[in-house]
Design brief:
611 residues, elongated, alpha+beta, 26 strands
């Protein structure tokens, strides 16, 4: 076959395959054009997730009729005044977006320069069908209809309207974060879905577009580093380690105001939070890196979502150090104050062995060989009650004095270790690890990881039997989420109901929780539903029904398990060990981490040089 020159309309359709993958791609290009035009207000309207209609209106500089005709030609742009492409400062610069979109959709452009008449031009899949005057305020309005309507090979690979709308919302959210000086509105099928007014600070805009609780649970990053080419400035907000999410979709990265998805930057964030977050948790971060244009190449991807740095090691080091400095400065800050229920458990209490009203000691204190020994072998609650004016907890395991490791008096003879592979509990270290003595060595158990596996296996067994038992809430709880997250949960409400979680839609951006799985006990509905929405966003389409149920059950089990930091009694520790011995797969948690390790007698002897 001989080589031939491709016709112009086919060239544009091929280019559209690189630039316009889905409605969100077209929307991104149009909004970036509006930002580059100097707009202070951008209004976006979608129908069917952008599949049938996308409209973007701005109050920017507008275009003359001659510029409008030129804008629909390939590689025609006003954003490169010279050939110094490495110094580009605008979001768009290739000049491919409008002709590419016009080749696979019906495109209408209406624009007016201040002080002149408006003009409109309509193109239907590469053919100009209408041109003439138009009435509109100064600025530009672009309408895209029936995207890929005449390209069935591309149309059939698009996802549902709901999924495409979620992708469009993510694009608008990221661009709105980058430019707090611009007001954004987004309507979907005639209903307002997003409204961001002009703001002076990026942290406020980020919190408004993600979760308003982030403003109270985040640190501000502000770091400058001089270089030979200029100054690198790192700003933004980062959540406290205790404020995290189940997936990394809530990490927003911007380079010179451009939203990017860069593996180097994502790796730097993971490195900064190393040893502060579990492997399956991710920080909520919005980082803005401003640097000289000569230090970054933005022309490495057709959609401009990837960048390349001249000195990547320096950029990574700057992000890691900036995040760690801000997190270190946060000190002991945590996500929130103790709940009212937890505070109500703290009240004065007189226990056996505490001083009575006359100042004497109760019978438990005088029974024994002396005060020193009585204090040594007293229960934790009585130790807390010995000091006048101290408060004690209703839970008998409350203990505030160091060291972190503790042991309880063996009021009953301990069971024989020979009958139990995981041994008999002897104490707890750091309120996280159970120390048990087995016949052949020492066993250390991660109480959270172990109980997480046990709860998951209980849920699997209950699900195999038909349906997981549900515990109705006395007062249904309303959980506020963004609209795409509510759509995903509503679509899977039946499957979640089989797992004991009964959800109902409660308006456009909220879910009503009526019951939670009984196996989880007093679970946190807000954290549970938020994590489930994140997991469905990450894995929903790629998993079968059985796999989805298993993944959801794993998330629920994590929320319903014994947490690290909870003090357990000896009886509770032994009960956990016994259940582990009869539960399949109890050697690892739901995320693949080991739940227990053993030091054999020989290993212990080696540690002390006896072997």
């Amino acid at each position: 076959m001989s080589i031939r020159r491709l016709p112009e309309h086919l060239v544009n359709r091929i280019a559209a395959g690189e630039v316009v993958e889905r409605p969100a791609s077209a929307l991104k290009e149009l909004v970036e054009n509006a930002i580059d035009a100097g707009a202070s207000r951008i209004a976006i309207s979608l129908s069917e997730g952008g599949l049938s209609r996308i409209e973007v209106a701005d109050d920017g500089c507008g275009m003359t009729p001659a510029d409008m005709a030129l804008a629909l030609e390939r590689h025609a742009t006003s954003k490169l005044p010279d050939e110094a492409i490495e110094m580009v400062a605008t979001l768009g610069f290739r000049g491919e977006a409008l002709p590419s979109i016009a080749s696979v959709a019906r495109l209408t452009i209406e624009s007016r320069v201040c002080g002149a008449e408006g003009w409109a031009r309509a193109v239907d899949n590469g053919i100009v069908v209408r041109e003439g005057p138009a009435a509109l305020p100064p600025g530009t309005r672009v309408i895209v209809e029936a995207l890929f309507g005449r390209v069935p090979a591309r149309r059939k690979f698009l996802r549902s309207a709901r999924a495409e709308y979620g992708a469009c919302m993510d694009v608008v959210r990221r661009l709105a974060m980058a430019r707090p000086d611009i007001a954004f509105t987004l309507e979907h099928d005639g209903r307002r879905a997003l409204a961001a007014t002009q703001a002076d600070d990026r942290p406020g805009r980020v919190a408004a577009l993600t979760d308003r609780a982030l403003a109270d649970n985040a640190v501000t990053i502000d770091l400058e580093r001089p270089t030979d080419a200029g100054v690198l400035v790192l700003g933004g907000v980062a959540s406290l380690p205790t404020y995290n999410r189940g997936v990394a979709d809530h990490q927003y990265l911007f380079v010179n105001g451009r939203p990017v998805r860069d593996r180097l930057l994502m790796g730097a964030i993971r490195g900064a939070y190393a040893e502060m977050l579990p492997r399956d948790r991710h920080a909520v971060v919005a980082l803005f890196l401003d640097m000289p244009a000569s230090e970054v190449d933005v022309n490495v991807h057709p959609a401009k979502t990837e960048v390349r740095f001249r000195d990547p090691a320096m950029v990574r080091g700057m992000i890691v150090s900036g995040l760690r400095r801000a997190l270190d400065a946060a000190g002991h800050r945590s996500v929130q104050r103790p709940t009212d229920a937890a505070l109500q458990m703290w009240q004065p209490e007189r226990l056996p062995g505490a001083p009575d009203a006359a100042g004497g000691l109760g019978p438990a204190a005088v029974a024994g060989v002396g005060m020193g020994e009585a204090a040594l072998f007293a229960t934790p609650s009585s130790v807390a009650a010995m000091a006048p004016g101290r408060v004690a907890d209703h839970r008998s395991t409350f203990f505030t004095t160091p060291p972190a490791a503790r042991a309880e008096p063996a009021w009953a003879p301990p069971p024989e270790t020979i009958a139990h592979p995981l041994g008999v509990a002897r104490g707890q270290v750091a309120k996280t690890y159970i120390v048990a003595e087995a016949e052949d060595g020492l066993v250390l158990v991660d109480q959270h990881a172990a109980h997480e596996r046990l709860v998951l296996e209980r849920m699997r067994a209950a699900l195999a039997g038909g349906r997981v038992a549900a515990q109705a809430l006395l007062i249904p709880e309303v959980i506020e989420l963004d609209e795409p997250a509510c759509d995903r949960l509503e679509a899977r409400a039946g499957e979640l109901g089989e797992l004991g979680l009964d959800l109902e839609r409660f308006g456009p951006a909220a879910m009503l929780v009526r019951s939670t799985p009984a196996l989880l006990g007093q679970a946190d509905p807000t954290g549970l539903v938020t994590d489930l929405a994140d997991e469905l966003a990450a894995f929903d389409e790629a998993l079968s029904l059985r796999e989805r149920l298993d993944a959801v059950a794993g998330t629920m089990a994590c929320h319903g398990s014994v947490r690290a930091g909870r003090v357990l009694s000896v009886a509770e520790m032994n009960a956990l060990l016994r259940e582990m011995e009869v539960t399949p797969h109890s050697g690892q948690c739901n995320h693949g981490r080991p739940t227990w390790v053993k030091l054999a007698h020989g290993d212990i002897e080696k540690l002390f040089g006896r072997r």
